[in-house]
Amino acid sequence: MASTSTSPTSSKLVLAWTLVFLSLTLPTTPLKIPKLGVVPRTSRSSYDAESLAADGFETLYYTQTLDHFNYRPESYTTFQQRYVVNSRYWGGPNVSAPIFVYTGDESGLFNDINAAGFLTDNAPHYKSLLVYIEHRYYGESTPFGSMDEAFRNASTLGYFSSAQALADYAELIIDLKKNLSAENCPVIAYGGSYGGMLASWFRLKYPHIAIGAVASSAPILYFDDITPENGYFSVVTKDYRETSESCYSTIRQSWFEIDTIASQSNGLTLLSQKFHTCSPLNDTQELKDYIGILFVAAAQYNYPPKYPVNVICNAIDGAPQGTDILGRIFAAVVAREGRQRCYSVTESDHTGGTIGPWTYQRCTEMVMPIGCGSNDTMFQAQPFDLKNYTDECRNMSGVTPRPHWITTEFGGHDIKSVLQRFSSNIIFSNGLRDPYSVGGVLQNISDSVVAIYTTQGAHCMDIYSTRPDDPEWVIWQRNEEINIIDGWIAHYYADLAARTTNQA
């Protein structure tokens, strides 16, 4: 490997799981939406290298190429890309034991490790080496030496793309296998959410490196006009309506009640008092965004045993008799956020005054046209407007979105007939209570490109660690994935044995 070392704790990690609930999409969507990341379900309070080392994780760095697709002098600049290896259960290269690679997503690397417990849970079964690679421009894997420099302007951000990230993974994996004399060890890519999109695309783009991919909650079809723009909020609405009709009705009416009160001369003051905001509201959108993201995040991450959608609806429906609509909504805020002296409705991008990494990706290639109409969800209407979206991106980042690039680069249209012709060994897993599942692959494409879903599942739940209170349906989902992966590896070993025999 080009460069390795043990990592010191870094203060620059942008990985606190609460950031997943912050608005990292653009104001041209009807409500602010949690980013695609995976939320850790763990009691671990520290995500640093020292605390993980005790569990067999070694933090290393690879000297990565800045630009894989040009030969200009500046393209040969390098940066230190962080990755983590766990070899505790690895059978080693002599038996061609598999390598499981987690394709890092839009968060710091340690967040991924704590979230993706499926890999560590099953490493003893496969005797697999575990490798987690941090996505460029996230965590510590920042070109140009620092986050401030990397996010300085559109020029320094010009090397920030999913294609560059996939090439990073390819280069690192090849080098790692060479250094471990593990050229015959099969690689399987894993990822959740955006990382799941990357895992599936990695299998399509680099089939000579990964023999298969597990893509959990990967909305690879939420681009162009493949998925209806109201799909995300329609699923959120369905989640609440199936939980409680009265809860759904209260939420649906609340937006208009906010507008009615705000129309009064002292309306914003009344709303600030009613919701105990830490500072006076500047407009109703601040409040709507704050409440809305609580609702959609609860649906996206509606995990057992607590089921946050139930928590919200129980608070709304269980408010004392005579409580008005907004009083019930505030009861839901308290139930979800806890009782506090006041509630902050303002958000920041947590990037030291610059735009956030996921916002930048949304402003370049990850243009998901998410919106909703006037009567198709429990939210107020605001259709996706590409012109406004583009204007916002130009103002914030100085770049113009390329809304059709993802489908040009990776495909998506007529996906079944296309992938039937040239792809294999991909699992697309989803939970249908996850709003992003509407943009996922929900039907089998072939015998080896398969869709596994559960009607009650939430975002990326299948790749979390097993828990004693896991419901039967997620246990079934994981077992289905394990059985399929067993088949991939067995087929690979049979091919390897045949090649060895022929060469002899």
Describe the structure.
Helices cover 39% and strands 10% of the residues. The chain has helices spanning 49-53, 109-115, 117-126, 147-150, 162-179, 194-205, 231-243, 245-262, 267-274, 284-300, 308-317, 325-337, 357-362, 386-397, 405-410, 415-422, 472-503, and strands spanning 57-65, 78-86, 99-103, 129-133, 187-192, 212-216, 426-431, 449-454. It contains 17 helices and 8 strands. By secondary structure, the protein is α/β, with parallel strands linked by helices. The relative contact order is 0.14. Residues 1-31, 42-46 and 348-353 have low confidence and may be disordered. Helix 8 (245-262) packs antiparallel against helix 9 (267-274). It is globular and about 85 Å long. The protein has a domain at 40-225 and 408-503: 3-Layer(aba) Sandwich (Rossmann fold). It has an 8-stranded mixed sheet with strand order 1-2-4-3-5-6-7-8, sandwiched between helices.
Write the layout of secondary structure elements.
Blueprint: H1 49-53, E1 57-65, E2 78-86, E3 99-103, H2 109-115, H3 117-126, E4 129-133, H4 147-150, H5 162-179, E5 187-192, H6 194-205, E6 212-216, H7 231-243, H8 245-262, H9 267-274, H10 284-300, H11 308-317, H12 325-337, H13 357-362, H14 386-397, H15 405-410, H16 415-422, E7 426-431, E8 449-454, H17 472-503
Parallel strand pairs: 3-4, 3-5, 5-6, 6-7, 7-8
Antiparallel strand pairs: 1-2, 2-4
Helix pairs in contact: 7-8, 7-10, 8-9, 8-11, 8-12, 11-12
